[in-house]
Amino acid sequence: MVDTVRIGVTGLGGLGTPLAREIDAVADAEVVAVADVSDEARRSGAEEFGVPDDQRYESHEAMLDGADLDGVAIATPHALHHEQVVAALEREIDTLCEKPLCVDLDHARDLVDRSEASDAALMVGYQRHLSPAFQRAREALDERVGDPQFLSASITQNWITHQRGTWRANPDLSGGGQLYDTGSHVLDALLWTTGLTPVSVSAQMRFDDEAERVDVQAALDVAFENGAVASVGVSGDSPVVREHLDVWGEQGGFRVRGSDWGERDLDFVDDENNAHAPEHEGESRNKGTAFVDVIRDGAEPPATARDALKVTAVTEAAYESARTGRRVDVDLRTEPRVEAD
Questions:
Q1: pLDDT, mean of residues 261-275
Q2: Cβ of 310: how many Cβ atoms within 10 Å?
Q3: CATH class of 128-284+312-329
Q4: What is the distance between the alpha carbons of residues 203 and 234, in angstroms, rounded to a whole number?
Q5: DSSP assignment, residue 162?
Q6: Half-sphere exposure in the Cβ direction for 99 (13 Å, CA)
């Protein structure tokens, strides 16, 4: 067991700084090094967490090589994740990477292989795995729902107003638009709570750019191996944040609801249309605390590279469908694709 968990943080923006605060608040954990290409972000973050001058790095790799680390948290633009996670795993450093893990399917496959072959842990920042509502829904699926047959999920957010001009609306850095950003959480929650295997997607999107790379609104029809179907809506041009996930089977269903970024509420509905709210089971653990547990106790990462691969596969199929007008198969193979001659 590690005594004091020493963690470096790469990316000190809107996600990285709050994540560093979560880590720094854990007893016997410490942010000991920071990396950011921005001089101001690097200076500000280092001063907040008391990181000395010689542990402030411009590059991720320099921090990995120069600092004495038990773990590293990565909160950089999505398209940088693969290279940065590879660098950490090659050095056998436990890693927390913000979602989405990858915006390229072969990169996602590569990280599944690397993480499962490595002694270092790889945790993905899908925090609904840490939410009591989603955890309880997943645990009670067989008893309360049975075999899921009809699913719906959505999230609304005033995303585009705040993201135009930032890296999140630059597809070379973000991989896409709202579906790859907040929408990634919705897809993950649906896939993780049910454990279903997606087989194909049909999607419609409204894009914010002529190249049709940055989606603002997305409507997905997802088909699953067991015959279930799902309707998924992701809006980045709505005035408020609202989220829902409904899952129905022969025995009943569950409903998760929430607004803004607080806790989500869960109730179960039986086959006589009676709703039952489970007893309150406390607040969500945050990602920083969970990551420290992974490092210190050898705990299983709450969200893994395999979870992230499913999300990337559905997301990439949805973008292809929206651009081509065709229904697209979801490719969940873990081996890299081989292009025909």
A1: 96
A2: 21
A3: alpha beta
A4: 11
A5: H
A6: 30
User: CB-based contacts of 43: which residues, under 8 Å, 6+ apart?
Assistant: 56
Tell me, rounded to whole angstroms, the distance of Cα 5 from its chain centroid: 23
Domains 5-126+289-304 and 128-284+312-329 share a fold: no
Q: Could you tell me the pLDDT band of residue 337, with boundaries at 50, 70 and 90?
A: low
Does 277 have pLDDT greater than 90?
Answer: yes
Mention every residue, 6+ apart, whose C-beta is less than 8 A from residue 201. 220, 221, 222, 223, 314, 317, 318, 321, 327, 328, 330
Q: What is the DSSP string of 171-221?
A: HHHHSSSTTTTHHHHHHHHHHHHH---EEEEEEEEEESSTTS-SEEEEEEE
Neighbouring-strand partners of residue 29? 5
268 touches 144 (CB < 8 A): yes
CATH number for the domain formed by residue range(s) 5-126+289-304: 3.40.50.720
Q: How many of the other CB atoms lie within 10 Å of CB of 116?
A: 12
Phi, psi of 252 (to 5 degrees): 150, -150
What one-character-per-residue DSSP string does 92-144 give?
Answer: T-EEEEPSPS-SSHHHHHHHHHHHHHSSS-EEE--GGGG-HHHHHHHHTIIII
**190-241 per-position pLDDT tens digit:** 999 999 999 999 999 999 999 999 999 999 999 999 999 999 999 999 999 9
Laid out side by side, the sheet with 252-259 consists of: 275-276, 265-270, 252-259, 242-249, 150-156, 229-235, 215-224, 198-207, 328-329
Question: What's CA 121's distance to the chain center, in Å?
Answer: 16
Alpha-carbon gap, residue 105 to 113, rounded angstroms: 13
Work out the burial of residue 267: count CB atoms within 10 Å of its CB; fewer than 13 is exposed, 13-18 middle, 19 or more buried: middle
What are the two backbone dihedrals, phi and then psi, of residue 89, each rounded to the nearest 5 degrees? -65, -35
Lay out the sheet containing 29-35: strands in order across: 56-57, 29-35, 5-10, 71-74, 94-97, 122-124
Domain range annotation of the chain: 5-126+289-304, 128-284+312-329
- pTM greater than 0.85: yes
Is beta strand 94-97 parallel, antiparallel or unpaired with respect to 71-74?
A: parallel
Mean pLDDT over each residue of the chain, to the nearest integer: 96
